[in-house]
């Protein structure tokens, strides 16, 4: 019963967030006066994502409870689950509020991906002997992901990154 209530509250939150994203994207300029088509509008993708988020939020908020399915989900009341959720939130907030805009985008993203990957790998298996290898893999992943994201958005989508 508690999961159903949490799903309803979370679903309503994501519905409202999706509506806000949709509204914000519709307020973006469409550049049709400069000859651009509707498919070139910068708000098109955010509008589609906001719509999908709003629909998903409604589906989550008003779905029927399935007890067999709920038993297979991790229980957030367990200390390990709470630790993982808290770690993800803290690392994401450090990235969004502390690094972005203060550090070059590629460096900020590399730091975030490296710390996120290494932290969660260490939570899964705390064997210190594997730490140097995991750190090397996390560093390679962080470098590849940050460069790929920067290239994709700046060079292909022509989006200016912080």
Describe the protein in words.
With 162 residues, the chain is mostly helical. It has six helices and no strands. It folds into two domains: 1-73; 74-162. The protein has helices at 2-26, 44-61, 67-72, 79-99, 105-124, 131-156. The longest helix is centred in the last third of the chain and has 26 residues, at 131-156. The model has no long low-confidence stretch (mean pLDDT 86). Residues 9-162 form the DUF1468 domain. InterPro entries: DUF1468. Pfam families: TctB (PF07331).
Task: Label this structure with key terms.
162 residues, mainly alpha, 2 domains, 6 helices
> Using DSSP, what is the number of strands?
0
Instruction: Kindly report the average pLDDT value.
Output: 86
- Largest sheet properties: none
Terminus-to-terminus distance: 43 Å
Radius of gyration from CA coordinates: 20 Å
Helical residue percent band? over 70%
- Integer count of domains: 2
Number of helices: 6
**Class from secondary-structure proportions:** mainly alpha
Give the low-confidence spans: none
Range of strand content: under 5%
């Amino acid at each position: 019963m508690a999961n159903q209530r949490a799903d309803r509250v979370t679903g309503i939150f994501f519905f409202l967030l999706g509506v806000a994203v949709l509204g914000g994207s519709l307020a973006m300029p469409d550049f049709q006066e400069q000859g651009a088509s509707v498919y070139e509008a910068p708000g098109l993708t955010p509008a589609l994502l906001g719509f999908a988020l709003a629909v998903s939020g409604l589906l989550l908020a008003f779905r029927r409870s399935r007890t067999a399915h709920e038993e297979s989900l991790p229980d957030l009341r367990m200390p390990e689950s709470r630790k993982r959720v808290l770690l993800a939130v803290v690392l994401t907030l450090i990235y969004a509020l502390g690094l972005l805009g203060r550090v070059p985008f590629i460096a900020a993203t590399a730091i975030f991906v490296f710390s996120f990957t290494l932290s969660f790998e260490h939570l899964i298996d705390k064997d210190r002997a594997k730490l140097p290898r995991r750190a090397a893999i996390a560093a390679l992943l962080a470098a590849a992901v940050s460069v790929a994201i920067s290239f994709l958005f700046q060079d292909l989508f022509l989006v200016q990154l912080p």
